[in-house]
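INFO batch 0412 | record 1 of 1 | parsing
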Amino acid sequence: MLYHSTRGKGLQMSSMEVIKQGIAPDGGLFIPYKIPKLSMAEFREMEKMGYVERAVRILSLFLTDYSANDLENCVHAAYNKDKFAASEIAPVVKLNENIYILELWHGPTCAFKDMALQLLPHLLVTALKRTGEDSGVIILVATSGDTGKAALEGFKDVPGTHVVVFYPNEGVSSVQQIQMVTQEGSNVDVIAVEGNFDSAQSGVKAIFADEQLEQKIRRKGYSLSSANSINWGRLIPQVVYYVSAWLEMLKTGEITEDQPINVVVPTGNFGNILAAYYAKKMGVPIHRLICASNSNNVLTDFINTGVYNRNRKFYKTASPSMDILISSNMERLLFDLADGDCERVRLLMEDLRLKGQYTIDDDSLKRLKSEFWGGYADDPQTLQAIRSTYDAYGYLLDPHTAVGMHVYNQYRKHTGDDHKTILASTASPFKFADDVLKAVLGPDAVEDMDDITLLDILSRTTNKPIPPALAGLKDKEIRHKTVCKQSEMKDVLTNLFYLNEV
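INFO prediction complete | emitting tokens
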């Protein structure tokens, strides 16, 4: 299978080259020429498999220049009992007859990013080896909270790689920050950036676009790549868990093969819901993709109006991983809405860069609304969703998943749609113990308490164990203390790798 950029089809590349590069040379995102579609007989064959076997099968359809042995080695190295606390890897939990929780946070950093970032390092190193690459690779990551730690953990001490994570200073939860700044490993650096996630993300994109800097990096013996979901190697593993969740519901008799489902995804950068969209294109019978936003509801407005406008107030919310106004992965969907017209996509992205907004045509908006439904939750509504779900089912939601639950309830009220629904649960509630406890016990119950103490209180209150990855945070040394402005990110990278010496 070959890939091209969303902004031009002139460059045809294999999946290994795409995963190595991360972002296309013209600034666009790599996409396959065609999404493979499976028959019901092929899905039924996968129904009998476990998660690891399903992952190998689905990845083999997209990563065709990897051998079967390569893919099996990569997948088994990523998804195993040493890395994931749940034997199912991504278990599906039934709350009631309508809603099922897809738990994506049983990996080493307690967030859904582990589902891709435990696999990506193995795919990348295999690609480097198979293509005869003798240089090292610098992995650049902009994070709004979870991607950073997952990338650090996934690439830690992986030979031939060095990962540099940029996160918004004071723009992630305390636990997320502690997870990153205490990260061990000989090949990791963590940098706080003044501003919000969009500042960090724009700075990383500017580094990729700087040809002079890239030449210095190559002369130093490195190449650049990305672990954000702009990298196809990050996105395609996410398709697997939506296919697998539907297959599990088939396997357990919760649905029949002619019974479409809905999928609710709390998302800021649009990658996680885009993966569900690709699962639908592969043949999974998804009726509606429900896009859940927090108060930074740029995606909600876009789905409802066709106008994407980042020129708005930015909110710091209880769901910080979704505090995003520039959703990078939307570019891949725009390519489909534009019927593969790369020039239209390029012009829309240019409007976003220069004006901070773009508008799609009426036909594209109609198609968008036929696939997606958008809603959002503010912080009080988010906490209420945590409380009501816990009261009704004894089930704890983290704030991001709670945004999804609130929007799902909005959707049901607005449409009356009673299709069975999968809600993607993106993080352990223990990563956001402060807000979860505020929801369960009230705001006064957690006043003036540090995050480590809050973990213990949440565990005692709910009789649920603290995940091992979080339980040990209190004893870890802070190793990464650098803070910079967005304009200084290139300088920081230059100093880290002594690029002024070449």
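INFO post-check: The mean pLDDT is 94.
INFO record closed
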